[in-house]
């Protein structure tokens, strides 16, 4: 019995499919299956029922899973003894939203590379709902997204708050500096898709205040949304860090609203059954670099 065999079994049992598990380990699916078959032969137990559309754990596989998780965790601890960078190695796949990618993600990557030189980072940028799905399926180790996950298998830990403000081009709104029902009816509202955290927050704010947008323009790229707002196509939300930067150049103006928009909570999310030391270290690294107020290099 080898650690590679246990690792193959663990990820196959914890991921949505053998294909996802193989991708996590950077091996072919046939190599993954071979390792699991070898492990089954050594244990003289069938660990997966492969008769259906998707392989599922047998009773023996369910009994082995917590033991395999424990053994792999102990192996990680042994690697950390006196090893450079605390012993973290291999690949770490994680997800962030576009705002994180355009602000503090470079700082996180630089910090982790310096502290854990043998760990290869693979960041993915997407909407929060898509990142949660990939996290649940085993494709990601962790994600930093807006809001708390409603999925039973995902844990969420508050990591930062982000404030947004209404913004518009001064050419579009003239001397107006407040959001009114008539402005929302007469001017296009530019937002990210419905699955995006800022949009969910905005929709709740509109509903609570009995307001509706007359016309909408949806774009799945936050930087493009900001550019459209600055170009006078419509009004929308800017992260406060970006707003200050653009307002200093007189590219946009802030529009006040009553009540003000609520802060948007961002969380560090991971799978509840994943207790690897990697996640504790990454949580610490994110906490040390997260800063959504940083100016965007695009402006």
From TrEMBL:
Similarity-based family: Belongs to the LysR transcriptional regulatory family.
Source species of the chain: Caenimonas sedimenti
Keyword entries, A-Z: DNA-binding, Transcription, Transcription regulation
InterPro entries referenced in this protein's UniProt entry, alphabetically: LysR_HTH_N, LysR_subst-bd, WH-like_DNA-bd_sf, WH_DNA-bd_sf
An MF annotation (GO) of this entry: DNA-binding transcription factor activity
UniProt-recorded name of the protein: LysR family transcriptional regulator
Gene3D superfamilies assigned: Periplasmic binding protein-like II, Winged helix-like DNA-binding domain superfamily/Winged helix DNA-binding domain
A matching Pfam family: HTH_1
HTH lysR-type domain: residues covered: 1-58
């Amino acid at each position: 019995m080898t650690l590679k065999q246990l690792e193959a079994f663990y990820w196959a049992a914890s991921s949505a499919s053998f294909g996802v598990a193989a991708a996590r380990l950077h091996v072919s699916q046939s190599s993954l299956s071979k390792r699991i078959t070898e492990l089954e032969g050594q244990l003289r137990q069938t660990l997966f029922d492969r008769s259906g559309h998707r392989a599922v754990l047998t009773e023996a596989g369910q009994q082995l899973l917590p033991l395999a998780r424990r053994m792999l965790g102990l192996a990680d601890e042994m690697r950390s003894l006196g090893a450079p960078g605390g012993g973290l190695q291999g690949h770490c796949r994680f997800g962030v939203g576009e705002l994180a990618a355009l602000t503090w993600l470079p700082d996180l990557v630089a910090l982790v590379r310096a502290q854990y030189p043998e760990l290869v980072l693979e960041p993915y940028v997407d909407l929060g709902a898509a990142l949660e799905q990939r996290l649940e399926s085993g494709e990601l180790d962790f994600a930093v997204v807006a809001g708390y996950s409603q999925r039973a298998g995902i844990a969420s830990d508050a990591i930062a708050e982000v404030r947004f403000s209404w913004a518009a081009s001064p050419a579009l709104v003239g001397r107006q500096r407040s959001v009114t029902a008539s402005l929302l009816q007469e001017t296009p509202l530019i937002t990210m898709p419905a699955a995006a955290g800022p949009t969910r927050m905005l929709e709740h704010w509109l509903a609570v205040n009995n307001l509706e947008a007359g016309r909408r323009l949806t774009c799945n790229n936050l930087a493009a949304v900001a550019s459209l707002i600055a170009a006078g196509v419509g009004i929308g939300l800017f992260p406060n860090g970006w707003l200050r930067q653009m307002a200093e150049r007189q590219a946009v103006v802030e529009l006040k609203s009553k009540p003000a928009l609520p802060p948007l909570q961002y969380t560090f999310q991971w799978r509840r059954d994943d207790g690897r030391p990697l996640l504790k270290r990454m949580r610490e690294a994110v906490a040390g670099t997260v800063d959504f107020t940083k100016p965007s290099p695009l402006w």
